[in-house]
Write a structure and sequence with these properties.
This protein has about 400 residues and is an alpha/beta fold. It is built from 14 helices and 15 strands. The strands form two sheets. Strands 1, 2, 3, 4, 5, 6, 7, 8 and 9 form a nine-stranded mixed beta sheet that branches. The chain is globular, with a radius of gyration of 21 Å.
């Protein structure tokens, strides 16, 4: 059975291969190809080619098409062409998964209903919170409109996947079967990782620097870089550095470095982007505390990967984040005072870091591939059974 997958992921063709950011490379699509023969992906053009690390999708069972973007309010000019291309793809498909909460998604769901195509939705983030916390007045005004439209469109959906266990299900409920599983696949969670982390913590006070790490795009402020820098200012510890691993332009880097300087923080460092989960793990192993003071999230890949490396984490309490770490290490978004307080408790008390490392490591066991696969396969089997029942 072939699956059509409609999303807002960004792609570009190079040397005949579709290329995308490392998070959506070959391995990402295993979650679908374990249950479906192949996947036809409809994505969007890569917006920042010059400064974005991309890797090719080389596997033959993944076929990528790129159509115009229409996620942002002013992209409405693309709607007619988007609808035309979606209609062609959906008319010819066997079944479809639609990553929701955009005009494109709402169009696709309506077309799937029109042509009687079995579909399921995929919910990977909270678009409403993403928009309502934006600096853009237009995006904030748009938030309740697209949220209301999305809720109405998905209400009678029969199958939906969610990257959280509870939060996104409560925000984007459907009448049908809802399955919560992360799309961040941990290949393993090994006991020696915890042992290495505990040794790392024991040596922290002897190292020149204490490294806080954020993984995520820095092209905008959804990840809360301002909150992190303001917390470092209040922490007032010259040994503490902020290291950032993510996607953005040189202008974005200059902005945040200047923002840090304005707040008396000289140690804002942008590490070179890496590809492949093993290289991400190595980077996490080189930091002391993983932070993510986000204004909006789904279930962040970076924190799932961090807890799998037994890395102590201090994160905001938005969306699915409370599912990942002990509540004592959560803070409200934009609360730099609380973030500074929690970081101080970590840095000044080795016992807190050891306790957090152990708790995080054992929680990560719920996100291993083996743990996720059984639930995921059962869900897709039920969907395929439904698809086949419609053919009779």
């Amino acid at each position: 059975m072939k699956l059509l997958y409609i999303c807002t992921y960004q792609f570009i063709f190079k040397n005949g291969f579709p290329c995308t950011v490392p998070a959506y490379g070959d391995g990402f699509w295993d979650q679908f190809t374990e249950s479906f023969d192949s996947v036809d992906v409809i994505g969007e053009p890569l917006r920042d080619e010059e400064h974005t690390l991309t890797i090719p999708i080389t596997r033959k069972d993944i076929n990528v098409s790129i159509i115009p973007a229409n996620a942002r309010p002013f992209d409405i000019r693309n709607d007619a062409e988007v609808k035309k291309q979606l209609e062609t793809a959906i008319m010819g498909c066997e079944c479809v998964m639609i990553k929701i909460a955009s005009r494109k998604a709402n169009m696709a769901i309506k077309l799937a209903k029109k042509y009687g195509k079995p579909y399921m939705i995929g919910v990977t983030g909270d678009l409403y919170r993403d928009l309502i916390t934006s600096k853009s007045v237009l995006r904030r005004l748009y938030a309740p409109i697209i949220y209301k439209q999305s809720l109405k469109t998905i209400k009678d959906c029969k199958f939906g996947t969610y990257v959280t266990q509870k939060y996104l299900q409560s925000m984007y409920p459907i009448e049908g079967m809802m399955c919560g599983y992360t799309d961040t696949l941990l290949p393993y969670v090994k006991e020696e990782v915890l042992e290495s982390r505990l040794e790392w913590i024991n040596g922290m006070q002897n190292r020149e620097y204490i490294d806080l790490g954020i993984i995520g795009t820095y092209h905008d402020n959804r990840k809360g870089y301002d909150t992190a820098i303001q917390a470092l200012e209040k922490l007032n510890n010259p040994r503490v550095r902020l290291r950032i691993l993510g996607v953005g332009t040189s202008e974005d880097q200059h902005y945040w470095i200047s923002y840090g300087m304005d707040h008396g923080i000289k140690n804002v460092i942008f590490d070179k982007p890496v590809s492949g989960v093993e290289n991400v793990f190595k980077w996490i192993d080189s930091i002391d505390i993983s932070i993510l003071p986000s204004r909006s999230e789904g279930l962040p890949r970076s924190i799932v990967e961090s807890i799998s490396r037994a890395c102590p984490c201090v994160i905001s309490n938005v969306c699915g984040m409370p599912e990942l770490v002990n509540e004592k290490w959560l803070h409200n978004p934009e609360d730099d005072d609380k973030l500074a307080e929690l970081l101080s408790k970590m840095i000044e008390d080795e016992g807190n870091m050891i306790e957090a490392a152990k708790e995080n490591f054992h929680r990560a066991l719920d996100y291993t591939l083996d743990s996720v696969r059984k639930k995921r396969t059962a869900f897709y089997d039920a969907f395929k059974e439904y698809v086949n029942s419609l053919k009779k």
